[in-house]
Amino acid sequence: MKKLGPDDIKIRSYIYSLIDTARAKAILDIGCGDGYDLIQIAKHTTKHVRLVGIDVSEEKIEDARAAITDDTRFSFLLHDVTSGLPFKNEGFSVIFSKDLLECITNKGELIKEVYRILCPNGQVVFAHWDWDSQVIDGSDKNLVRKIVHTFGDWQQKWMSGCDPWMGRRLWRTFNSTGLFNGEMYTYVLTNTEFRPPYYGYERIKDFEALVNKNMITKEEYDTFYQDILNLSKNREYFYAITMYIYIGRKI
Ligand SMILES: C[S@@+](CC[C@H](N)C(=O)[O-])C[C@H]1O[C@@H](n2cnc3c(N)ncnc32)[C@H](O)[C@@H]1O
């Protein structure tokens, strides 16, 4: 299981605090990755809860299964959720998902499936970064905008779609279905130090991959990166990103 930095842990703890774990009998995590969230969420539940994770990546599902050893409350399923959710009607009291929807093209179909397998008055908790609105101070606004937006538009090979506005679009994605009553919550993560293990540092390092993909030039990245180093030396570096969370109840 990948070791998370303190910013990532803090943001996830905030999301877990919004989950109605006390009364949950069965919790599903869609796009569960290596199972980290489900394992943390389990710490706030009763001993009798059923915890199910589903993901299309064989490697992630293997990691998740290895992490839970012989805890029989958990099951992790290898499945592509674009072909539906392989569960009976109304079987889950909480359906959780973080940073999955951006890569799903037919979101409406998935949301209908979520509705079908959620029990009456069950809770949906869908969280997503809004990648396109990452805030980075820099000397050249156009260059910062170009790099942030190019990163957001980068459809990586494990994604069947790509929407860097998914955070801000959670509201309409759910509300347009008329199937849930919900509210939006936000968490703005800010960093003023440019060094590991801060979240902004890790993301700015990630941007370098755009050079290898020929999406920005090496010169553009180097100019941007040097500017960030200079700002950081003068204690002027600033990074922020917003996590959006839709919390809804089945109508
Ligand atoms: C950005 S990762 C988020 C993982 C985890 N929820 C987290 O926040 O740490 C997106 C996850 O969704 C999974 N995923 C993408 N498309 C999927 C699909 N069609 N069906 C099931 N899982 C999918 C990926 O394999 C990956 O584990």
UniProtKB/TrEMBL annotation:
Pfam families: Methyltransf_31. Residues 25-136 form the Methyltransferase domain. PANTHER family: TRANS-ACONITATE 2-METHYLTRANSFERASE, TRANS-ACONITATE 2-METHYLTRANSFERASE-RELATED. This is Methyltransferase domain-containing protein.
